Amino acid sequence: MAIEQLKVREIVKQAVGKSLDVPEFQRDFVWDADQVRRLAESLHRDYPVGSFLLWDSSQYQQSKESLGTESSLWIVDGQQRTTALCLIFGMKPYWWPDAEKWNRALQKYDILVNVLPDRDDGRLEFALSNPIRSKDPRWVSLRDVLSKPGVAELTQLASEIAKRATTDPEERMTLLAHVNGRLNQLWQLGERLIPVVKISHEVEDVAEIFARVNQAGTRVKEADVVLALAAVHNPGWVREEYGPVRSDLEDRGWDLDAGVFIRTMTGIGYGRARLRDVPSSFWQPDNLAGAWDAARDTIADVLKWFAGYGVLCSDLLPSTNALIPLFVPHRRWKTAPGYSFGKALRWFLLASRDGRYSGSAITALDEDVRAINEASTFDAALDALLRRLRVSHTLDAEEFLSRYDRAGNRFLRLMLYLVLYQRGAKDWVDGTALGYDKTGSPITTGYEPQWHHIYPRNLLRKCGVGEDDIQALANITVLNERTNANRVSGKEPWHYIHQLRVPPHALREHLIPESFILPTDDPEPLKQQWDTAHYVTFVVDRAELLGREANAFLHRLETT
């Protein structure tokens, strides 16, 4: 192990020239603009910004983006800070190959500094770029300062700032001296020394090192560590197999974290979800290829089944952890007599209602995955899973009077969506079925429904209705994401029903109570019936319909 210090400017130079690179098991750049601003401000204030840990390995040449063509120092700890420094300097690091995305990032992460602050303690003010600051002569882009090759080139920039700040020649000379001194101060940020630790451990040690050093910052999850372990045992797998599959699913609306993939692999291939119980030999090339193929194909297959029920994105689900015990039996019994995805989906919904896998749920996951693998039949596995749930298998209508925007009610919101989708409910604005576009074709990528308040929030607030009642699930229906919601948003129900000529069958598909379904040609009866005085009656009656329909849907799943 070697310890040295590198200038900030040298770290950026090495990142641009590929002397530093990012191993394939590192995550993408995730810092927001304010984190980049705080890093720049910390350098200005001479605060510690942490050491960088670099790995010198001639054995490992698996870059995040492509197979390495030359030996690099791999960034084990410090990737986010290094990328942030490159953004501050305006110099694209080697591992960021997309020039168009880089140019967009330069705009997003443009850090401005007020070089004519009111304070006189020597500290400068750092802020993110916005239209007002960009026009203010006191604010200068830090990138414009740090990109200069030397302090001598700062004089012209200082002169331009002073010229924009005042028209008085004498005052301009005074400002020029102040501004030039502060620009020099900013340029020196590139000369700050950063502690750098270089290690040359064996490949097998890197995953453990990666875990320990990252726990001091954004905590690395157990699955991320195992992913790193799999990566170092299987060079190129993350970049060529896992990464593209995960990115493709994310582009299609399924943002599944590493834990879902890794535990699906271990659940299918080893019968465990608790990763510390899985031997390291499981991640050797001879084992990993088969486990990955099985997990990848199973995930794709199950998501196709979900699409048949209108679920096209992970945001609709209360918990993606619950997918793992859904994937495992599907892989084992999908072609066996008696297997039913409908029955498995019913269990998935009830487990989501129970909150069995929300929060820290590794114990529950492991128990259920083990039960699945120990069962002799699909029905036996399903019985074992259902016995563990603590909730009733039927819903009460009153549950749909609870708030739709509470995390604990995501299950009910999903049930609301599934019920309306199964009924073939149409969008009230453009008349298309939920989950379909205007051509009548199913939406296949990342469909996210709009949650529409049937009685507008502002209208109910003006009438003194409490927030809990306003946000009731029974006051929510679903419209397509691409619809022109402005045509219904904020308007009284009678008004948009009359204006859009929403037919009775379209209202029934959304489970609108029968007493509120009237001919649309005469607005007066509509206006009277949909008056806010009848709001409580509306939500109570609709909750009854929703509860009845939700239970019928669960029963159909049980018998399919």
TL;DR?
This protein has 560 residues and is of the alpha+beta class.
**What spatial order of strands do you see in the largest sheet?**
1-8-3-4-2
Q: What Rg, in angstroms, do the CA atoms define?
A: 29 Å
The portion of residues forming beta strands comes to 5-15%
Distance between the termini: 62 Å
Low-confidence stretches: 215-220
Average pLDDT reading: 88
Q: Sheet bearing the most strands, described? A: 5 strands, mixed
Domain tally: 4
Structural class: alpha+beta
- The helix fraction, in percent, is 40-55%
What is the general shape? flat
**How many extended strands?**
10
Count of helical segments? 24
Molecular structure report:
The structure is a single chain. α9 runs antiparallel to α10 (222-233), α14 (324-333) runs antiparallel to α15 and α18 (410-422) packs across α24. The protein is an alpha+beta fold. The protein has helices at residues 8-16, 33-44, 79-89, 99-108, 131-135, 142-146, 154-165, 169-187, 203-214, 222-233, 237-251, 258-269, 285-308, 324-333, 341-354, 362-374, 378-387, 410-422, 457-462, 467-470, 493-500, 504-509, 523-529, 535-559; strands spanning 2-7, 20-21, 52-56, 73-77, 111-114, 125-128, 139-141, 193-199, 450-453, 476-479. Strands 1-8-3-4-2 form a five-stranded mixed β-sheet. It has a three-stranded antiparallel β-sheet with strand order 6-5-7. It has a two-stranded antiparallel sheet with strand order 9-10. The protein folds into four domains: 2-109 and 192-214, no CATH class; 111-189, no CATH class; 222-387, no CATH class; 397-559, no CATH class.
